[in-house]
UniProtKB/TrEMBL annotation:
One of its GO terms (biological process) is lysine biosynthetic process via diaminopimelate. PANTHER family: DIAMINOPIMELATE DECARBOXYLASE, GROUP IV DECARBOXYLASE. It comes from Butyricimonas faecihominis. Residues 36-270 form the Orn/DAP/Arg decarboxylase 2 N-terminal domain. Transmembrane segments: none annotated. This is Diaminopimelate decarboxylase. The active site is at residue 332. Belongs to the Orn/Lys/Arg decarboxylase class-II family. LysA subfamily. The gene is lysA.
């Protein structure tokens, strides 16, 4: 961040999210280009960041939307994402949400259970519509990521189990208001080991060849999201390696003739463009530790408390000797801690602190816990 930007920060009320829109544009450009090279379809996972200005920018790149609630579907449409590029997933879609998605004529419902598809069939019938559906399959592939964000192994709540798939397909084909168009997979988030995606391709190949033996070929395969970012060293990897990621699917997935591939990237598109900016309220000396107490708390950025997530922390306004600090928030919870034993230059009340790589699952998870104000947002220009 340059001096001018930091000067501007000094005039703003903290805490707030700062978004580097130049980086966001460059990241979207890189992702679109890498996907287009193979003719792959991109959908942005809105749950990663639903800030309206961020959505405007993403939408302007011609990317579709991946939604996990009715309100996200409504927001996607309001932000200008074309309905025919909107997909909608989630284990617990309510009747009201399903009706809304049917009304908006979205591209596809990614479905996770037969009872859900039966309800969609019934509601679509009432509305005189036919719903396009993809079955989310739990491929039993371990994403090698934190267990809270692993979704593709057999003992979690997501998707159809492999042994249920044939039955689900038969059932869908008997429903008058359901059009089965594809298979959907999403095995987890913050996946940095790309061989995991190769494993996913090979597993999906097996599933497809088994279905093919029964004469079943579906026109769409959606591989979900999950590509990780570099939290340890944001500047080492500001733009994720989209080319290598998509190349894996081009190399290892055996697409059937005419089959379209879809991806739902969230974190990798927006993660590095956002930082949480806050001020130091107090520096407190314990017996063995020094604490930097920020005016930002876990209500502004939940990831460290929720997933034990690591974020790089920078003092933007001090250049003193380095010392070790625990960097904490003001909230009455022990988990309200952004980093332990972090090396920072000598830190004082009033210093500006940036917590980096907060563009994804940051502002969207902010709450008013302790009746605190929601953080603001500020964009580079
Ligand atoms: C969360 C989610 C995504 C996006 O995941 P990222 O790790 O942010 O890329 C994609 N698809 C589904 C179904 C999701 O739930």
């Amino acid at each position: 961040m340059n001096i001018e930007t930091i000067k501007t920060f000094q005039t703003l009320k903290t805490p707030f999210y700062y978004y580097d829109t130049t980086l966001l544009q460059a990241t979207l450009q890189a992702a679109s280009q890498a996907a287009n090279e193979h003719g792959f379809n991109l959908h942005y996972a809105i749950k990663a960041n639903a800030n309206p200005h961020i959505l405007d920018i993403i939408q302007s790149h011609g990317i579709g939307a991946d939604c996990v609630s009715g309100n996200e579907v409504a927001q996607a449409v309001a932000s200008g994402f074309p309905s025919e590029q909107i997909v909608y997933a989630g284990v617990g879609k309510s009747d009201e949400e399903i009706r809304l998605a049917l009304e908006k004529e979205i591209f596809c419902f990614n479905c996770e259970s037969l009872p859900e598809i039966e309800v969609i069939n019934m509601l679509a019938g009432e509305m005189g519509k036919k719903a396009s559906v993809a079955l989310r399959v739990n491929p039993n592939v371990d994403a090698h990521t934190h267990h809270y964000i692993t979704t593709g192994i057999e003992e979690n709540k997501f998707g159809f189990y492999l042994y249920d798939l044939d039955h689900a397909i038969t059932a869908c084909r008997e429903m008058e208001h359901i059009k089965l168009i594809g298979l959907h997979f999403h095995i987890g988030s913050q996946i940095t080991d790309l061989t995991v995606f190769r494993g996913l391709c090979l597993r999906v190949n097996e599933i497809q060849s088994r279905l093919k033996e029964q004469g079943i070929i579906l026109p769409h395969v959606n591989f979900g999201g999950g590509l990780g970012i570099n939290y340890d060293c944001p500047t080492c990897g500001l733009i994720p390696d989209f080319a290598s990621y998509f190349q894996i699917f081009a190399d290892f997935f055996e697409a059937q003739p005419g089959q379209q591939l879809h991806f739902e990237l969230g974190r990798s598109l927006v993660g590095q463009c956002g930082s949480l900016i806050s001020r130091v309220l107090y520096v407190k000396e314990g017996k063995h530790k020094k604490f930097v107490i920020l005016d930002a708390g876990m209500n502004d950025l939940l990831r460290p408390a929720l997933y034990q997530a690591f974020h790089r922390i920078e003092n933007l306004t001090s250049v003193g000797e380095h010392e070790k600090y625990d960097v904490v928030g003001p909230i009455c919870e022990s988990s309200d801690c952004f980093g332990k034993d972090r090396e920072l230059p000598l830190t004082n009340r009033g210093d500006l602190i940036a917590i980096h790589s907060c563009g994804a699952y940051g502002e969207v998870m902010a709450s008013r816990y302790n009746l605190r104000e929601l953080p603001g947002s500020y964009f580079s220009r």
